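check these tokens.
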Amino acid sequence: MKKLLLTILCVLICPLAVNAVNYVQISKNIDSAVFVDNDSISVIRYAPPYYVIQCDERIHSFTMGKWAQITSQYLYDYDNQIIKKRYVSMKARKEDSPWSNPIKYTRIDDVSKNQANWWIANYIFNKAYNMYFSPEVQAKYGAKHT
């Protein structure tokens, strides 16, 4: 009887573990925290020295009590060490509300060194290619944080 109950319990709980969300915190400060969904990281373009990697980001604004989920594409020029961010879509919600409908974007921004987006870009590049985009981050962290 115990084996049967244990088996039924395992069958019911295992699917929950398979569908678990895999978010990693990239940065935080007094106002907000930024996360990347590891399962959403995908290479869109591989044409060295040019790369495009897409991911889902979640931003939690503590001061506004809101969440935003942004699907972004990071555009890399390895030779010139340039990163740009293209916003694909965004949805938002208050902490106690459901998600809004996604809003499409066409905006492209430059990514400045040591900003949250720069760290996201390096993180997802590392997840895609097992090396950091920035040579100084690669020299400092190398394979320690893969």
In short: The mean pLDDT is 88. Residues 20-131 form a domain with the Lipocalin fold (CATH 2.40.128.710). The first helix runs from residue 2 to 18. The two ends are 44 Å apart (CA to CA).
